[in-house]
Amino acid sequence: MDTLKSSILKSTLGLSIFAVLTTGVIATTQIVTKERIDEAVRKAQTKALLEIVPATIFNNDLLSDVVILPQPNELHLEEGATANLAREDGRVTAIILPAIAMNGYSGPISIISAVDIHGSLLGVRVIEHKETPGLGDKAEARKSDWIQGFNGKSLSTPANDRWKVKKDGGEFDQMTGATITPRAIVGAVKDTLVYFKNHKAALSGSSTNPHGSTPNG
What we know:
Elements: H1 2-52, E1 66-68, E2 82-88, E3 91-101, E4 109-116, E5 121-128, H2 180-205
Antiparallel strand pairs: 1-2, 2-3, 3-4, 4-5
């Protein structure tokens, strides 16, 4: 009987140690994996920002110089969402605004738009989407040059009623075989420009970096 109890005790102890070790390994793996994912996201964000903001108009760290968005719901974003600021010698030269195009063919489409301080688009990039490969994914800069069509546009160029795809009587091209995706993105970019116009003072007046300090505007 004592031998049986001893055997059960050893087995229980062994399983407990195994469980603790397994939990530790899983936790460590999750931490390492998260760090790698965070770093990959940071690199992707940096790459996208550098693609749409000319190096000649900023000398700050685009990724860490951010401002909390007022009324983020206007861009279909959650509270606490931030925009990145481009500065040259402390002066804001452009604001990179995130937004969600809610009506993509396969779901929401995340975009960022760089708007110079005068309200003109420097560039737009699709950051995340689930659009159909070979069709809606042509919104990606690496798949086609369609997204370049926003460069230089503003709320007045084209006129307000021309901020649509051509199929709807507007200025912007469709994609071959896909209309819903470009229609959603065009709408989201226009919403971004309207948002910039309405909140420009708040966006360019102050910013908060991840360390909690507030750079001069």
